Amino acid sequence: RLRAAGHEPSRQTFEAGRVATSNIEVVLPGESEASLVLGAHYDTAPRCPGANDNGTGVVALLELARRLKGSSLRPTVRMVFFTNEEPPYFGTDLMGSRVYADDLAARGVPVVGMLSLETMGFYSDEDGSQAYPPVIGALYPDRGDFIAFVGNVDSRSFVREVVGAFREEATIPSEGSAPPSWVPAVDFSDHASFWRHGWPALMVTDTAPFRYAHYHTMEDTPDKVDHERLARVT
How far apart are CA 79 and CA 65, in angstroms? Predict the structure, then answer.
């Protein structure tokens, strides 16, 4: 799909559990060497079809790659399909986004921000359809009809900037949150690999287990995905 859109993708291959696995990257040069990273993990949880987690993030990133081809960009945009986000590698040095972020840091590549596209395709208009981690639930709607932009305290300015830009064009509700990183689930994606280097990063998500009953199950199938609202978010 990337080649069909006119890109020249490259692989960052490394070994995990005696298996060669790869991050897949497309770089769109901008006016500045400073990079904005857009990422989505393409692996699934064990025994999970992964339509929402994270087929939705992958197709959104593929469509962004198609649309951004030939665009005039201020930052350099790095679009990365990550391996090894799911267990058993989540949170380890063999997590694909950690390998990638560590490599950028080692090469001295300046990163202005990172967006992780993570489980973006389930929505509900029913009252009470949205849950939250402890502490923050009282601050947000109880209806799961919005897309969320979730960072940490150090990324709060980036979250505000991204949500503000999104709302200028969006036809779907959105919520932004930048709680402390110790709040449960705030670090549940590839954006946390970038926090380790002090870079602002967030995940774009339907909030996954806090809304989606089929998270990490055999029932995470394409019929559960709201394609129309996923398209609007993208």
Answer: 7
